[in-house]
Amino acid sequence: MSEVPLKGQANETCAPGQPSDPKDPWDLVVLGGGTAGMVGAKTAARLGARVLLVERAQLGGDCLWTGCVPSKALLACAEAAAGARRGAPLGVEARQVGVDFAGVMSHVRGAIGHIAPEDSVEALQGSGVHVMLGTGTFTGPRRLDVDGRQVQFRQALLATGAAPALPPIPGLLESSPLTSDTIWALSELPGRLAVLGGGSIGCELGQAFSRLGSQVVLVEGADRILPREDEEAAAVVTDALTDDGVKVRTGVTVVQVVGSSGVGGALLLDDGSRVDFEHLLVAVGRSPRTRNLGLDASGIETDPRGFVVVDARLRTTNAHVWAAGDLTGHPQFTHLAGVHASTAATNAVLGLRRKVSLSAVPRVTFTHPEVAAVGLPTQRSRDGLQVRSWPDSHVDRAVAEGQTTGFTKLVTDRRGRILGATVVGPRAGETLAELTLAVRLGLTTRQLAGTTHPYPTFGDGPWNAVIANVQDQLTRPATAMVIRGLRTARRFVSRR
Ligand SMILES: Cc1cc2nc3c(=O)[nH]c(=O)nc-3n(C[C@H](O)[C@H](O)[C@H](O)COP(=O)(O)OP(=O)(O)OC[C@H]3O[C@@H](n4cnc5c(N)ncnc54)[C@H](O)[C@@H]3O)c2cc1C
Ligand SMILES: NC(=O)c1ccc[n+]([C@@H]2O[C@H](COP(=O)([O-])OP(=O)(O)OC[C@H]3O[C@@H](n4cnc5c(N)ncnc54)[C@H](O)[C@@H]3O)[C@@H](O)[C@H]2O)c1
Fold it and tell me: ipTM of this predicted complex?
């Protein structure tokens, strides 16, 4: 363990070092320096608390080193290749698209390197947070051991994240599969890549590797990929993956993996078929990093899957310990980890009772086209709720770009309040922002329809969908009668 000392007088003022008197514990000790840990620590320091953050590896966590940043950088390379290839219908022909995998990985590392200083020890110190590098374990309700050093706290924030899950399939471990933790070390593009799991990671990385030139087979146990998303959205992505050369196999179970570490192998499926691979990527979900943390010693309970049990204020079953991010069992997103952390840190340091709400947490799968969703499912109409759809084939920007497979779907109540949305299309994640605000604030389609949107943008999809919903409302018998009455009165008045 190495302790990183604070530098400079200014830092000393805002974040004094370890209190020398053990009866004067840290106001907040944060365990884990990923998104949740860093945001929580900075929030608490900004509120004037004396904060110690303990990280066992490197600050930045999964998002920076193995998650969002490398995956989106890889996707950008893949989109550059695919964009060059799909020029023909637009009159632009690139006869041979070459991919230099070393160059791709250099871009991926470059993106990480660009962002890393913002998540560095120095940056945290500059925000008034004391950092200790080492592995933390609870040794009591208000005590931690960090590689042999005892740390006392008034409050603690647990933010140790989650790690790729490996299902108990015979032969899987022996085949040393790749996961989202290890795939970034590849130095050569896999010739044949099998991807187990058709969720966010499987779809994003499967499509990216296929666009870069790998032969990809994606194996999903459920009857469709992206099983948590709108069925039509999943169908559009299935078609897109297929167009990009991915062989999508759904509704099949892997009964055995044959082959040994590093020399390829095969998935044996329950329908008797096999999928040969050079590399296997496993992406079937992420398990909380809650083992060997001494949670029993500190009275912190976990659920049967190992996620830390929290209340709506993110307090664990130890009244002095809070939890944030992937280890809580809430949706596993960087943006939610940040919201969690600022809420939990504020509650911990100031004794407030702020709650997190999961009703308007947006999610985006960054395939091409993207699938972005928030709020209630848009799958089908339910009692008293309407679903309104608008296809990108009627969005002028999508037509101009020759990318019309997407759509916007809204679920609204009778008053036109927007309760949920799914947007599929290029940059759907950006388009979703206003719908997220609408769901969160309970805005109506009438309010959004009355807001001028710039033309021509993909934002026309949601705008046309809300306008269509308002027009639907105008056809209701009572409203139609009022309109008829006003029109008749107007005619009468203007005749005089
Ligand atoms: C391939 C991939 C792509 C993703 N893409 C997106 C995306 O596009 N958008 C999005 O919102 N989310 C995305 N995610 C999810 C996102 O990365 C996570 O939700 C986010 O990183 C969770 O942050 P966290 O702080 O909870 O955990 P982590 O980032 O995992 O941080 C936990 C930290 O705790 C440390 N730690 C663990 N145990 C100890 C200990 N005992 N002592 C000290 N330190 C410890 C770890 O070293 C780590 O640094 C992606 C994930 C993956 C894998
Ligand atoms: N764009 C993003 O925001 C983004 C991107 C990547 C990851 N993430 C986060 O990381 C988490 C983990 O991603 P993930 O893709 O590993 O998990 P996931 O839960 O999104 O998807 C896992 C998929 O694997 C399937 N599956 C499970 N066991 C299987 C088996 N034995 N055989 C075949 N299929 C099986 C499931 O049906 C599911 O479709 C996500 O839930 C998400 O929160 C987010």
Answer: 0.99
